[in-house]
Amino acid sequence: MELPPRPKLFDFHGVSMTNYFTGNWDNVQNFQARPDDILIATYPKAGTTWVSYILDLLYFGQTAPERQRPIFEKVPFLELLIPLYPPGVEVLDKLTTSPRLIKSHLPVQLLPKSFWEQNCRIVYVARNAKDSAVSYFHFDRMNRTQPEPGVWNNFLQRFMDGKMVFGSWYDHVTGWWEKKQTHSKILYLFYEDMVEDTGREMDRLCSYLGLSPSADEKERVRGGVQFDNMKKNSMANYSTLSIMDFKISPFMRKGRLPHFSPIPLSLSVVPSSPLYVHHLFFAHYSLSLPISHSSGKVGDWKNHFTVAQNEQFDEDYKKKMKNTTLQFHTVV
Ligand code: A3P
């Protein structure tokens, strides 16, 4: 099977995009939302699949045959137009389940207007900037429908410049945050809160959506969406999607990253990081050690950022985020 070519980034209404997300634009903009639709909106790599799977299990977990379909079919990606797969809009138009669960990475200003007209419920998930950047980097390495990521240092600079698919992380998270202040149908969640207490955040979701699962049902869903369970679940881990190369990096990264070390062995990694200790310990023994990854989900950036990158990022972050009340719950 021929794989799609890597796309180029271009400016699209002030947002960096590729043709895999703009190629169907008229149909995306004219998309007819239904009043009971639930939109899961995120900047890429914020935990979209996690929340999608939670909602899928809460709504349709009892329906046995339904569970045998991969999550990207059950929660279609609105603006997606990639070779080998039907366009997101087309899949959604044919979907008869109620509610429809819809995924989108569009910045708030580009969302089709029918979502606002129909007053749809929207769940937005945000993840801290540094972990988002790291996760996005590995995603672009393994996903052929994303632009070539290049080396980590340049990628990080592009992230800070907003030259990513779906544009600037800073504009995305703050744009949706500002919208939430005036629009009551947006539930704004944080990935870090979900890691800290998945059950509590599921309760918030349920109360927002008017769901009241039994204690047993809730526990069953909570178990099903735990990182390790989702990682080995082929219906939730994207392993059935041919455009992703798990030999380069898995969709859900945890444990050792194969064949990859973004930072040459040096003592310049963020001092509190496991990598720093790792470097100190092993510096005499090897010059080509792969990075030891075990921390997983929050704070993985410490395994990637050098001290200099971190300082530059923090300084830039303060400037870009100075006019918003949005605060992330972990040190970024
Ligand atoms: P990492 O790349 O840091 O591993 P998205 O679905 O928006 O593309 O986000 C993907 C990120 O969410 C990946 O981050 C993935 O591991 C993480 N993720 C997915 N399911 C998760 C879960 N059940 N618990 C914690 N993190 C999860």
UniProtKB/TrEMBL annotation:
Entry keywords, A to Z: Catecholamine metabolism, Cytoplasm, Transferase
InterPro entries the record matches: P-loop_NTPase, Sulfotransferase_dom
Residues annotated as domain Sulfotransferase: 35-256, 294-324
EC number(s) recorded for this UniProt protein: 2.8.2.-
EC class (word): transferase
Molecular function in Gene Ontology: sulfotransferase activity
GO BP: catecholamine metabolic process; xenobiotic metabolic process
Keyword Cell inner membrane: no
Annotated compartments: Cytoplasm
GO terms under cellular component: cytoplasm
Main location (coarse class): cytoplasm
Keyword presence, Metal-binding: no
Family: Belongs to the sulfotransferase 1 family.
Name of the molecule in the record: Sulfotransferase
Name of the coding gene: LOC109887908
